[in-house]
Structures are given as structure tokens and as C-alpha cells.
Design a protein that fits this description.
Helices cover about 30% and strands about 30% of the residues. The longest helix has about 50 residues. It is an alpha+beta fold. The protein has one domain: minor pseudopilin epsh domain (minor pseudopilin epsh fold, 3-Layer(bab) Sandwich). The protein is built from one helix and eight strands, in the order H-E-E-E-E-E-E-E-E. The chain has a four-stranded antiparallel β-sheet, covered by helices on one side. The protein has a four-stranded antiparallel β-sheet with strand order 4-6-7-8, covered by helices on one side. Pfam families: N_methyl.
């Protein structure tokens, strides 16, 4: 018969140690941290561009949505609407039919520099109104957005009240040659 061991008699033996496998050396850790630092140094300056591009896309979607909503409302009600842009406050909304709807603000750091029409001087202060007729036609306009020294132009297409985006400041004279963004 084999003797039974009690709990106090059963003790764990320490694992045999292996030389050289205790972990990373200080030199290895310093090299890895240096590589991570270099990668962050290269990546962080570019994050501002990604953020600005995201802000621009958000502004484009917001203005496109308001234009589409205004066009739909105008066609369904038989009454004209207008996309209003307050250049000083950086807000836009739909007006017409005795109401103001959907006030939205441009993202931080992005401002509306001007709104220009083919038959008038550019609007650079106050409120610009882009008319949308009851038949769904919109007044052609160029909306210039700025962030620091960078500029983008949003062109309102007259027949479907949609926006086309261009990098840089586009004018009526060079719109035909401008490349969409």
C-alpha cells in the first residue's frame, strides 16, 4: 500500500530557471520606444489633414442635405425655398413657406468665406440666399469654404440642386477647367 500524502507534505518545487529568457533587455526596450516615437512624429502632423478633410465632408453633407430637403419641400408645396448662409456666424438653414428649418453650423475651424452668383457681386458679409424654385431648380452659386490658408469651393448645380466640390478657390471664369475633389 502506498502512503497518502497530506496537503502539508505536498509542496511545489520551483521551476528551473532558464538563463537569458527573463524578458527584454533595456537596449531592446529603448530601440522599440525610439521606433514608436519616430512613427508618431511622422503620423501626428498628418492627422490635422485627415481631421480637416472630415470636417469638409461633414459640411458638404450638411449643405447637400439642406439643399435636397429644400428642393423636395419646394416641389411638394409648390412654394420656393432658400438655403440661407450666415457668413459671420457660420450657420445655414432653410427659409421659405413662412418657416426656418434645420439650422446647422459649420465644423470648428471651417468658415464660409463667400457665396457668389453669376449675375452679382460675391456676398462676403451678412446672409447669402440661394433660391430654390417651386419646380426644383436652384440658383447657381459658388460657396467658398476656408480653413486657414486652404480653400474649397462648393458649386450648386441649377437643375438638381446638388453640390460639386472642388479643391481651391474656383471662380465662374475657371469653373469649366476645375477638377472635382
Amino acid at each position: 500500500m502506498t502512503p497518502v500524502r497530506t496537503h502539508s507534505e505536498h509542496r511545489r518545487q520551483p521551476l528551473p530557471s532558464r538563463k537569458g529568457s527573463a524578458g527584454f533587455t533595456l537596449a531592446e526596450l529603448v530601440v522599440v520606444l525610439a521606433i514608436i516615437g519616430i512613427m508618431l512624429g511622422l503620423l501626428l502632423p498628418n492627422l490635422g489633414l485627415v481631421s480637416r478633410e472630415g470636417d469638409l465632408k461633414a459640411a458638404l453633407r450638411g449643405l447637400s442635405g439642406l439643399l435636397a430637403e429644400g428642393r423636395n419641400q419646394a416641389m411638394m408645396s409648390g412654394q420656393s425655398r432658400a438655403l440661407c448662409i450666415d457668413l459671420a456666424k457660420g450657420t445655414c438653414w432653410l427659409a421659405g413657406g413662412g418657416e426656418r428649418k434645420g439650422r446647422r453650423s459649420l465644423p470648428d475651424g471651417l468658415r464660409c468665406a463667400s457665396v457668389s452668383f453669376q449675375d452679382a457681386e460675391p456676398v462676403t458679409t451678412g446672409v447669402a440666399r440661394i433660391a430654390i424654385q417651386a419646380k426644383g431648380l436652384a440658383r447657381p452659386a459658388l460657396i467658398v469654404l476656408r480653413s486657414g490658408k486652404e480653400a474649397w469651393t462648393l458649386a450648386v448645380r441649377p437643375f438638381d440642386a446638388r453640390l460639386a466640390a472642388y479643391q481651391g478657390e474656383v471662380t465662374w471664369e475657371n469653373l469649366a477647367e476645375a477638377k472635382p475633389w
